[in-house]
Amino acid sequence: MSSHTAATELTFLGKVILEGEITCETGLHIGAGKGSLEIGGADNPVIKDAFGLPYIPGSSLRGRLRSLLEQTSGLAVLSELVYLSKRKGQEVRIHQSDRPDDEICILFGRNPGRIEKVSGEALEAATATPARLTVYDAPLLVDSITPQMRENLDDELTEVKSENAVDRITSQANPRTLERVPSGARFSFRLVFDVLCDEDKPLLARVAEGLRLLEDDALGGGGSRGSGRVRFGGLKLAWRGKDYYAKGGGEVSLLESGDLAALQQLTAAEDFAGKLA
User: Considering only CA atoms, which of 233, 262, 245 is closest in space to residue 20?
Assistant: First the structure.
């Protein structure tokens, strides 16, 4: 847990900007929902922007990071979960507590309106806290889909993966198709970490941990069936203090063209907090 206490005062100190690329190691499927089905199209299309280009929603990346960090922190248990939604058939449970040193709630924010525990017992009144981590939509780098790749794709930018569920008793087949962004495609991502007190600074190491966990997990749907393996690279980390915004001062470059190992080593160093000044 962090060194935050109930007496910790929040004031804007600056922002840490993390940018880089996400490379698809296997096909990536982040669904667009049933409202976008087309006649003759895949059963499960990927989400696309207004220009028809696939992208990774910031909510998908942020939610996966939160889920992985909850699991590795031992917080994905009934005693630590609250209901985000209790609609029949759509129950969604996430971690949230009223502890001031809870790193997950500090990173991703705390909403006092979501305080009913899964067990039905009421939590103590929690104070709303602002999220420190902002994750933006990651657009596709169109040039990463090479002419050679396009020759073998089902669509200009995507592939269609056929899957088949077979009934164990009757052997009846239930085929389905899954649209995916192909292996080798790259996306440009951007994360912004707000530093609102000195106690926030060590928490950037948890963000790096979440990204490292994601490389050995999956993003989007079909992860247990091979989809969604990604890799982070070309990382740039910069610090923009109050003077950057108030007086037009310069930013401090902390990492250039690094990988996750370099990011973790940097953010876990004892002198890292001193660089954010």
Answer: 233
CB 142 within 8 A of CB 53: yes
Residue with tokens 């009757």: 170
Rounded Cα distance between 43 and 176, Å, is 6
How far is residue 45 from each of residues 28, 54, 183, 218, measured CA to CA in Å? 11, 10, 16, 18
> Residue 224 region, left (φ>0) first, then alpha (ψ -120 to 50), else beta?
alpha
Strand partners, 237: 18, 255
Show pLDDT as tens, one digit a residue, over the chain (277 residues).
788 998 999 999 999 999 999 999 999 999 986 554 454 456 789 999 999 999 999 999 999 999 999 999 999 998 888 887 777 777 888 998 888 999 999 999 987 665 566 655 555 556 788 999 999 999 999 999 999 999 999 999 999 999 888 999 999 999 889 999 999 999 999 999 999 999 999 999 999 999 999 999 999 999 999 999 999 999 999 999 999 999 999 999 999 999 999 999 999 999 999 999 8
> What's the pTM?
0.91
Q: Report in angstroms the alpha-carbon separations of 91 from 33, 88, 94, 214.
A: 18, 6, 10, 24
- Cα 238 to its chain centre, rounded Å, is 19
Cβ(193)–Cβ(237) below 8 Å: no
Please answer whether residues 260 and 232 qualify as being in contact, where contact means their C-beta atoms are separated by less than 8 angstroms: yes
Dist CA 178 CA 97 (whole Å): 37
